[in-house]
Amino acid sequence: MKRKKNRIIKNISLGITLSIFLLISCNNYKKEAGANKQVVAEVLDNQKDSKVVESKKEEIKTRTYKMKDGTALVYNLDAKGIVGFDDWNDYAIVNSEIVNFKKVNFKTTEARMRHLNYRIANLSNTIPPYLKTEEVLEDVADIQKEYKELIEDTNASEKEVAENLEEVYEKFDDLKEELNETMERYIKIHDDAIEEFIEEYKEGKIMAAIEEYNEEIKELDKMIEKK
Predict the structure, then answer these.
(1) Is residue 226 included in any domain, yes or no?
(2) What is the pLDDT of residue 9?
(3) What values do phi and psi take at 53, rounded to 5?
(4) What local confidence, expressed as pLDDT, does residue 94 receive?
(5) Which residues contact residue 142 at a Cβ distance below 8 angstroms, ignoring those fewer than 6 apart?
(6) Residue 1: is it exposed, middle or buried by C-beta count within 10 angstroms (0-12/13-18/19+)?
(7) Is 224 part of a structural domain of the chain?
(8) CA distances in angstroms from 106 to 118, 143, 173, listed in the order given
(9) Which residue range is the domain that position 37 belongs to?
(10) Is residue 40 part of a domain?
(11) Which residues, including other chains, have CB under 8 Å from residue 97's CB and lie 6 or more apart?
(12) pLDDT tens figures, 102-116
């Protein structure tokens, strides 16, 4: 009788344990399914919003692009490249001033250039995180170096000042070119990731779609990690 009672207790305990295990497994499955559903919804929503949106004002185009974390990158460009970012005011001001410098006489340029000291020195402090690639940071450092030589050499001849000014202009053009390439790389990587996701998703391969997207999107982080 005692053995029978023990078997009953063991069976009840086993049943309870199994029920708890199944309940936990079911909850984990629901959580995983819910998480996957959320990822799918976010990527599909992102795919809808991530296209480049352009608005034109005279010769300046404003582009808005939504990235993987929902961040909206807003930047302005003309025929020569990016002229400003919504979240990098110092760059926009320096770019605008340099464009204007090239239109006025040498003496005016030299005097006004010295007033840009704060803005140029602050370029590296205010640069948005998504632009802090190794190449962009190097170009910013080059601008600051050439600018420092320009304003510190108070005994330079007119010819030397002109040459130093030209060096600053060239370094800034290098930065502008790198910024153009950086934004193009961002958009291409992001678009490729979404394209890979959609291909798998259309075939009903939800997990494969998520894995493909996550694998492709890692390239965005690698751009910043290089610095």
Answers:
(1) no
(2) 40
(3) -105, 125
(4) 94
(5) 171, 174, 175
(6) exposed
(7) no
(8) 21, 19, 19
(9) 1-48
(10) yes
(11) 112, 113, 116, 119
(12) 887 766 677 788 888
Residue 39's contacts (CB-CB under 8 Å, 6 or more residues apart) are 210, 213
The label of the residue with tokens 């009788």 reads 1
- The confidence score (pLDDT) of residue 7 equals 44
d(C-alpha 199, C-alpha 160), whole Å: 59
Question: Is the pLDDT score of 21 beyond 70?
Answer: no
Q: Tokens in use for 191? A: 């678009």
Long-range contacts of 64-73, Cβ-Cβ distance < 8 Å, separation of 24 or more: 65/183, 65/186, 65/187, 65/190, 67/130, 67/186, 67/190, 67/220, 68/190, 68/193, 68/217, 68/220, 70/46, 71/130, 73/130, 73/183, 73/186
Block residue for tokens 């006004």: 112
140 in Cβ contact with 120 (< 8 Å): no
* Other residues' Cβ atoms within 10 Å of the Cβ of residue 144: 17
Is position 146 within any domain?
yes
For residue 105, give every residue at least 6 positions away whose Cβ sits within 8 Å of its Cβ, in sequence order, or none: none
Q: Beta-strand (E) ranges in 68-135?
A: 72-78, 81-85
Indicate the residue type of 138.
E
